[in-house]
């Protein structure tokens, strides 16, 4: 039987699960600690996703003309660093599967904590479908069309184009979704072995692409691009057609601050190991390495990307080529979308080893992220069920594999249903763009919870972090204030900049719809919570009592 530790060698008897009413589904989760510190770092790196981070940075000059990419990354890094300390301290205080669902419901307010985690979890389950689709679109299609274009092989371009079609994406994503769900159901031991291999391939290939761009000169890029079109011609075409202006300064303060949203596409998603906190070996010691260590690695790679995109490719060119691409202009010179793979590929020339290494690596990254999302989000669903908010069956753990089978199946069904409109309904992609705000709302609530956690006197006094202070102030409250301020700016950008497809200039109806979409799952979480609360109360179970206690391990 597990109990909450009150610091090294101490135990808080007032919170010992044996001495409170039987409020949870059972007296132990049934999960086992098989995740090493290295596995937790890998998990955070994979889910943060450098490939998606590259997309955010590449489109940033188009979305916010005048942005300084490196400055935007540094602001995003500051935001994420403050948040990483918040998650580290909460990991020490409450190392449980479910992560910030447990932190927020016990530190702030049960309904708010559940609603925030519900928004993050369901949006992330939807992303399982998106990332499975990316295996085809960003991975196989991008790799093969780039390889075929550079090598002048039309058959490869044709095959690559098929993976970019709706049917190609849907079939590939469905196969990936089924296989990865089955992999995670088999338990951690085999899943982690597979994921370590996928990560190794993904990180080598993706970092190769980043280094190829960063190590090249601007003149080399202009020369390499000349095989496909005129570098200056792209800029002139975008300017003359009115789809993108000539920007005099790429060091403007306003765009650089608001650009933190796109710059955060990777950096702010470093903390997913928190959701499997109950399965990490020595979670309290692993937390700073898994969270702050992973973030430090990500910051280094994203800064290198920003440097390469700005100095090798050029901000004005990036703004212009994405403007031509998104506007459907006949002046767009390429047969493939602009991307990390393409820009690195043309700089690699006809080096087949580099071309294939980059293509395989980017494909492997999209493939690796799917099982990691199943792993983490199924634990959130299980935690809700364990607290009796959702049906108890979703908390059941396989005696053989030690995995929450029904929670994984729940995530699979939801993601597969989402894949249909995501693939075949063009307007749905715009709807989905608002999801980023829905995810970040959860981090905003975590930051606020950190401010209030020291006021939960019994929990805080026995948390193991009560002595960590800056002067007279609790460290967790101080970093909570900093993170709250930064994320408030981030959310302001999401809701006021048209690039995030929530705010639509000149169209208040679409803007209202965008705001409602971004908040939809947060609001739905409240409805689910209170419906469950009243249903449980009718059966003699008081969720207010359940959510005052730290769940057992």
List the helices and strands and how they pair.
Elements: H1 37-48, H2 50-63, H3 69-93, H4 100-107, H5 110-151, H6 154-163, H7 166-185, H8 188-215, H9 218-225, H10 231-241, H11 253-258, H12 260-267, H13 283-313, H14 315-327, H15 340-348, H16 352-386, H17 405-424, H18 426-433, H19 435-452, H20 457-461, E1 469-470, E2 473-474, H21 475-496, H22 508-538, H23 543-546
Antiparallel strand pairs: 1-2
**CATH topology group:** Amino acid/polyamine transporter I
CATH level 1 name: Mainly Alpha
Structural shape:
globular
- Total helices: the number is 23
Radius of gyration of CA atoms, rounded to a whole number: 24 Å
